[in-house]
Amino acid sequence: KWYEQNRSQDTLANLIEASARLANPNTGNNAGGVGSSSASPKKKRPKAKRAGSNSLFHHHHQKEEMRIAVHIAGILARQGYIIKLCRALMLYGAPTHRLEEYLSMSARVLEIEGQFLYLPGCMVISFDDTSTHTTEVRIVRTIQGIDLGKLKDVHQVYKEVMHDVIGVEEGTERIENIIAAREKFHQWTRVLIFGLTSATAAPFSFKARFIDLPLAFCFGCLVGTLQLIVAPKSNMYSNVFEVSATVIVSFMGRAFGSISNSNLFCFSAITQGGIVMLLPGYSVLCSALELQARAIVPGSIRIVYAIIYSLLLGFGITVGASLWGIFDRNATSRAQCSDPMSPYVAFAFVPLFIICISILYQAKWRQMPVMVVIAFSGYIVNYFSSVRFVASPQIANTLGALCVGVLANLYSRIRHGVAAATLIPAIFVQVPGGLAATGGLLSGLRTADMLTNSNSTETPTETTHAMSTVVFDVAASMIQIAIGIAVGLFLSALLIYPLGKRRSGLFSF
């Protein structure tokens, strides 16, 4: 049916529109679709964004904050690099009297305002900011040691940063990797090297014979075990390590030296060879260099420590020899070896000693040939000078140090090597022979004889005076040797670098 169909919506809409026009003629054409016009209101035109003064100021403020943040981050990165460099140089045996110079030059190149004060085992760093009138003080404390291989790597990073080859971020990362790297040689390997060092030092420094070398090797291994294995595990024992090791070696050395009426083993050679790595020659040399470089505070502190340390060694030798004298009234008192090997045969042990020292202090294999040549040349000059100047062994030490200093600085200038790392084995070659020439170590033997063989005719005053004189012989001998070596090293640096180095510090003693 028609009434059942859908009604026409268009017809109904047209009727409503016509009615609206008749009722209000002003509506015009917009009156169509009343429902639609009333349902959707007219949209407003969106306003255009204008750049007001507040938004411009905010944008400028954000850019300024970003610039300041980047600037501060750069300053902190450069300061962090200087702190890492300081720690690495102190850890691996850089010349102590030039540490402040290295850091000051690095700060100047990196445009950092800083001041540096070195004390033994500690560096006080002050970073200044003149714009805000503020100062930040940092203290770097670390145990100073010697690592010739890592010292070369740190010097390479130092040079590349100074000459703008790499940035401070990469330099800091490389120094952190160097510090985190494990040691080149294992501890027990170094204990064996301790023994070889004692065995190779005894012939040319203390006139040992071939039969004395096995005992010197055993004593050296004993000292190496106490120093590398036992002492790091016990803080209580580390305080008496030097005295105890010297007492044990002196006691056992006199015991073996007294066998067969003192004709089998040489007491002086095996005892001095056993404790050769305990001699504070390097520490005394650093103090003499610091005092000569006008670094009064660290030089004074270090030389007092070295004197006390030397007195402890002399005391240990006296106690050990005296203890065996109590058990054996006929104990040996010989301060010289009978029938020593030829000095020209002993020359063959010098390169072996240098190689052992290089391994002991973690040198790289490619560094060793130069170290052997320079140190052996210095020993040859020292030996023939000591034959010429018998009454003054300090002159021989000065000439030997002058020779090794000139060669090492020439190697640094021509081949761009690290003179400081090359010089350290040569210094260790100079010290034992000089100490043996002055007779400082064996002065404790005379005191031991005086204690064990004293009689009622000797007054306590005479005995005490003799003991005091003998105890100070070791310290006086060490200081005399160190002064001679220090003068030679300074003269060598003056000859090769008369005007110094302009951009980076002189990496030499």
UniProtKB/TrEMBL annotation:
One of the record's GO molecular function terms: transmembrane transporter activity
Subcellular location field: Membrane
Membrane topology qualifier: Multi-pass membrane protein
TM region positions: 188-206, 212-230, 237-257, 269-291, 303-324, 344-361, 368-385, 391-411, 418-442, 474-497
Residue stretches of biased makeup (Basic residues): 41-50
Record keywords: Membrane, Transmembrane, Transmembrane helix
Region entry Disordered, spans: 23-58
All copies of domain Threonine/Serine exporter ThrE, residue ranges: 347-493
Domain Threonine/serine exporter-like N-terminal, first and last residues per copy: 81-323
Source domain of life: Eukaryota
Main subcellular localisation: membrane
One GO CC annotation: membrane
Family: Belongs to the ThrE exporter (TC 2.A.79) family.
Protein's name in the database: Threonine/serine exporter-like N-terminal domain-containing protein
